[in-house]
Amino acid sequence: MKRLNFSKKRDAVLKVLCSTKTHPTAEWIYAQLKQEYPDFSLGTVYRNLALFKKQGLVVAVANVNGQERYDGVTASHSHFVCKRCGSVFDVEAPGADFELDSRIARRYGCEVERHNLCFYGTCSRCRQEEESGEQTKNVSV
Amino acid sequence: MKRLNFSKKRDAVLKVLCSTKTHPTAEWIYAQLKQEYPDFSLGTVYRNLALFKKQGLVVAVANVNGQERYDGVTASHSHFVCKRCGSVFDVEAPGADFELDSRIARRYGCEVERHNLCFYGTCSRCRQEEESGEQTKNVSV
DNA sequence: TCTAAAAACGATAATCATAATCGTTTCTAT
DNA sequence: ATAGAAACGATTATGATTATCGTTTTTAGA
């Protein structure tokens, strides 16, 4: 196994991801960091996100419009994806926890590492906008 | 809204997808159809899968190694994805049903169309192979 | 503190699954 | 039967992500 060196920029990627609840894209994380470090590279964001995923520090929760959305919160929780505006936010779904993982493992003889539960639909803000006749422009999920 | 014409090949795409439990990729569906119709095009598979998704006849359940995995069964059920061999199979997770959708809708004021619950880990066959010392070659999820 | 080997980086090019294009073929309402 | 729309095959374009490679940074050990 490769030895890990400290890296200021790697830390910065994780810090940006963990300091937002927007479940951002790699591109968005890059845009934030580019302001602080003008020589930041998009490759560094992807490289470290991949590393964090392998380490279990970060999880890709959904793919919206062809772009992966990341989450730095590993505690068990679920997500809602709005097909209209593309926003992703946390929801708490009763029963979707580690206990469920081990129940599946027991029943199917597999080893369950984690699960991902996503709800798809229209968020409350978009529902209101639709009622007041605003133009819909859906997102692909 | 566009009028829909009948199409033999469109039907064939849905039929192939619905006649397997492997949750195949677009490429796999194409390979099957290419045998029956030597002039089948991969674009036709993608075009119709996109249409089916919009109609709610088909759902993309997981992305394994960068390829979307499709399911023609719309009845509420969950999936397990093996990170070792990449197989996807149905599992039944208690509580993950339409009732859960409306519970989330009520609590968060959103409209929930569907949900997707995926478990990630190692399937029972791969666990055995790992024990008998076979080489692991993980898949990306 | 210095140094060399390994790790991480920036810039850029490559990959490749999927989407779009466009001229031709197939449907279908009339 | 026929015209207009829809679907197709073949092909190209897209764009998010990954890989490459020469340079810079980190760090273990002298």
Question: How do you describe this structure in short?
Answer:
The structure is a homodimer of 141-residue chains. Chain A has 5 helices and 5 strands; from the N terminus they run αααββββαβα.
- Largest interface summary: A-B, 33 and 33 residues
* Sheet with most strands: strand arrangement of chain A: 4-3-5
Indicate the multimeric state. homodimer
| Strand composition percent of chain A | 15-25%
How many helical elements of chain A? 5
Class by alpha and beta content of chain A: alpha+beta
Question: What is the number of domains of chain A?
Answer: 2
Total beta-strand segments of chain A: 5
Q: State the fourth-level CATH superfamily of the largest domain in chain A.
A: Winged helix-like DNA-binding domain superfamily/Winged helix DNA-binding domain
The CATH class assignment of the largest domain in chain A is Mainly Alpha
Give the radius of gyration of chain A.
18 Å
What features would you describe in this structure?
The first copy, chain A, folds into 2 domains: 1-74, Orthogonal Bundle (Arc Repressor Mutant, subunit A); 75-141, Ferric-uptake regulator, C-terminal dimerisarion domain (Dna Ligase, domain 1). The mean pLDDT of chain A is 95. With 141 residues, the first copy, chain A, is of the alpha+beta class. Chain A is flat, with a radius of gyration of 18 Å. In chain A, the strands form 2 sheets. A 3-stranded mixed sheet of chain A has the order 4-3-5. In chain A, strand 1 (59-64) and strand 2 form a beta hairpin. The first copy, chain A, contains 5 helices and 5 strands. In chain A, helix 1 packs across helix 3 (42-55) and helix 2 (26-36) packs across helix 3 (42-55). The A-B interface holds A 63, 80, 82-83, 91, 93-96, 100-101, 103-105, 107-124, 127 and B 63, 80, 82-83, 91, 93-96, 100-101, 103-105, 107-124, 127. Strand 5 (111-122) of chain A pairs antiparallel with strand 5 of chain B, so a sheet runs across the interface. The structure holds a DNA duplex (30 and 30 nucleotides).
